[in-house]
Amino acid sequence: MTNTPFRPVLRSQSDVHAMWRSIISPLGWHSRRLYAVVIDDHDRPLPTLHELDELPARLGRDDATGALSLLADDAPGHRVALLYCRPGAGQTLNRNDRTAARLLYDAARRLRLPLEVIHVATDTAIVPAPLDEVVALVS
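Request: output the structure for the sequence above.
Response:
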């Protein structure tokens, strides 16, 4: 048995999706939360999983900025992968998921925090929320 941390190479949205599927199990949420992984210069996640629990049902601009400002301080020069989790079933993004993802993308831009494609976890699936789809569907 080894104590080697889980450090896959994360170069694509598919790689990030596979990472979330590997480390977040089982699915099923009682409240909204946000998980974050900092990714180093070699495209590998640092061995710390950040978790913000008990997010409001409707994420606001200040909530998103506050959550990501903590990460911006811990991740200078690195990029971040986010997983926004919410209770309820769904294989696709709903309007609230898209709004939350857009607020997180906007906060990251303001904080100059590079992000991977945000993913949303429901009780039944992990779904990517690419910026271009979120902007097109929320506007």
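The first helix runs from residue 13 to 23.
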